[in-house]
Amino acid sequence: MSEDIKKENVDLYDEYDFSEDLLYSLKTYNSQISTIRDNSVRVKNNIRKMLSNQADSQYTETELQKIGEVLTNKNGQLKELITYKSNLLTYDHYIMPIDASKYKTEKDIREARRKASKQVEKYNLKYNCKWIAQDVIEYGEIYLALVKGKNNYLFFKFPREMCMITQKTGNMVSKFAINLGYLNSTNYYTFPQAIQELYWDYQGGTLDKRRIIKNSWYQMTETCYMAFTLDEWQEKGTPYYSYLFDSLASLEELSDLVNLNAYIDSFRLLHQKPELDDRGQLKMERKKITNYHNALKSLVPYGYCTLTSPLDLKLISSDGNSSSILDAKEKTKTTIYDASGVNDNLFNGNTTNTEAVSIGFTIDTLMPLRIQKEIENWVNDHMRSVRATSNWFLEFIPTNEYNQGLEAERQRSALAIYSPKWKYLATIGLTPLRALSTIESEELEDIASKMTPLSTAYTQVGNEVGGRPTKAETGESNANSSSTNPNE
User: Fold this and answer.
1) Cβ(173)–Cβ(253) under 8 Å?
2) Whose C-alpha in 13, 154, 194, 201 is 20 to 30 A from the C-alpha of 223?
3) Residue-wise pLDDT tens digits, 129-143
4) pLDDT single digits (tens) 35-94
5) Cα 292 from Cα 287, distance rounded (Å)
6) How many other CB atoms are there within 10 angstroms of residue 165's CB atom?
7) How far apart are the first and last CA of the chain?
8) Cβ distance 283 to 277 under 8 Å?
9) What pairs with residue 146 in β-bridges?
């Protein structure tokens, strides 16, 4: 009896082992599917876990910034939203004197304008403002130092991990403190010279203790240090689009599912069915069946799997599932655009409601304009500390890539009622220095006399040669002039 049981167990093992060999290709395919599904779920669960633990974590802002950085690098939709918002404004600007009575002659005020314009040109605002705004939108904060160069200024960006906002000036400019404990012998030399000197003073214990808070945090109160954030009264900023992270994670999951379904839809299974006798037993030896199976498996291309089984197979289609996943993905995209306040017609053009798009342009500029105002406040603070610009103020014009031409036309019309000509020159893209240089160079080159309007009926008056001939020259008068009215 025991020998029969032993023999039966051996047969069962052989059958199991035999089936495992014939199903090997399918097991490999299933493992690939599981990898795609598990990666998608893992990313989404990690993001949701971080978002749900905000109240318990003292590094909430840092964690959100890390999530935002990952999603920005991985999700094109979020990256385009940030790029669109940060590059929407043109950052056109002009300068005017605070007290013009200090200048007695035209020469005095022009010379003062030239010096002030050269100073403002060093900021390179039309370029630097865009990447500053991008960092504020993406991470919720940026900490900068203005480093003076020979011909311009360099904006040095501090690592966010070593900074926090501690003060506000009267002009609502944010000041921050740096954690000197972040610096060490391997990274201190990558910072500006002033920070390197603070590091050595910190190591030697000679720092001004009145500016130290929380043991190693040193407050940077000089005008050349500034922070920009959307959370004005918080120590740390949070990414502007952090409320979209969960939806973006869902979109990533749906995108993975679309890829998974495409992988499944491309799957082709070749079923090889061995012959059975009347009793349902294999007619062919197992070894031969295995050889046939391996021979077929070696011939099929990538994407095909082979199965040798005496059982009948039933076809199951996944077309409906793919369609529902695509619909869910499109709805999630629309939800992200709606939540972000950006008109999705700007990116997909599915509808042609031009009025809605026009209104959307205005709404899209509200947040960038707020960042622009923060930068303007700091620039004016810093200009007060520089002799050449101490009596001048800078003002940004709320122009963007869509309305710049229209705003230039409005300012040109406003010149008739004594609107500042410098403001008009700014709306056409000229910086204060370039506007002044253009005017002075054209005066010296006498461009006005060399580029007179062509002779037409509308540009000639009096006894000037050319223009429309008079009625005396044509021999006509009001009485005998031909009528163009067909009823007369």
Assistant:
1) no
2) 201
3) 999 999 999 999 999
4) 545 555 555 666 666 666 655 444 477 888 888 888 888 777 888 889 999 999 999 999
5) 9
6) 21
7) 131
8) yes
9) 155
